[in-house]
Automatic annotation (TrEMBL):
The keyword ATP-binding applies. InterPro entries: AAA+_ATPase, ABC_SmlMolc_Importer, ABC_transporter-like_ATP-bd, ABC_transporter-like_CS, P-loop_NTPase. This is Molybdate transport system ATP-binding protein. One of its GO terms (molecular function) is ATP hydrolysis activity. Residues 1-224 form the ABC transporter domain. It comes from Cecembia calidifontis. SUPFAM superfamilies: P-loop containing nucleoside triphosphate hydrolases. It comes from the Bacteria. Gene3D superfamilies: P-loop containing nucleotide triphosphate hydrolases.
Length: 224
């Protein structure tokens, strides 16, 4: 279970907004953050990952405090049990697919997990290729597998599919759902795509102007 209580002033092109988000995310839930551009969705992902600090608030994950402004606790990104995939492909261009995954593997862990990941994403035959040999969808599959090599409990996805065409998007949505279930992850995904949010979410947070404007399952949130 993730207890989130986040407050931070955000400065954007259209002035300042006060981000204020308070919610509980259940273990194994697939939660999407949906809403207009600039509303604060990416900032929430960044605060969860430790790449941005809230001004005030708490992040408590399964009873462990990751962030507490009063107690001055702020765990480093590498000490948080997370895997992240961003919109842009963030693979190392000079390493092969296999080496990209191996780089993320904790020292001493068996490389069998890499083989298992490659099999799950169906890219075993491309494991010796460098990223520029791959299609956008294949790169994002590798990024997804790499995010999971450390066996995190939480998967954070910031619009990972927005650069892909519809067919590839559909495939990757299935891959994300398969990983989400297989590794019993708690997954938090930013998406602009209404169909994607409807298809994938257990629960949606509609984020507008830095606050939760509505929340519930997709039927509840999109009933109008
Ligand atoms: N470190 C920061 N401190 C203060 N404000 C920031 C910081 N980083 C980003 N912002 C601002 O916060 C606002 C919200 O941005 P954010 O990327 O979280 O929105 P978003 O909902 O993810 O938008 P999009 O859908 O376009 O990605 C933006 O106006 C941005 O300029």
């Amino acid at each position: 279970m993730i207890q989130l209580d986040l407050k931070k002033k955000l400065f954007g092109a259209d002035g300042q907004i006060q981000l204020q988000v308070n919610t509980i995310i259940q273990s194994k839930e697939l939660l999407t953050l949906y809403g207009p551009s600039g509303a604060g969705k990416t900032s929430i992902i960044r605060m969860l990952s430790g790449l941005m600090s809230p001004e005030q608030g708490k992040i408590i994950v399964n009873g462990k405090t990751w962030f507490d402004s009063e107690k001055k606790i702020n765990l480093r990104t590498q000490d948080r049990s997370i895997g992240i995939v961003f919109q842009e492909y963030s693979l190392f261009p000079n390493m092969t697919v296999f080496e990209n995954l191996k780089f993320a593997l904790p020292k001493g862990d068996s490389q069998d997990l890499i083989e298992e990941m490659l099999e799950t994403i169906g890219l075993q035959n491309l494991k010796d290729k460098k990223p520029n040999w791959l299609s956008g969808g294949q790169k994002q599959r590798v990024a997804l597998a790499r995010a999971l090599v450390r066996k995190p409990s939480i998967l954070l996805l910031d619009e990972p599919l927005s650069a892909l065409d519809t067919a590839m998007r559909n495939k990757l949505q299935e891959d994300i759902l398969a990983f989400h279930r297989r590794f019993e992850l708690t997954t938090i995904m930013v998406s602009h795509d209404y169909h994607e949010v409807k298809k994938m979410s257990d629960r949606v947070l509609l984020i507008e102007n830095g606050i939760i404007a509505n929340e519930g399952n997709p039927e509840e949130v999109f009933k109008d």
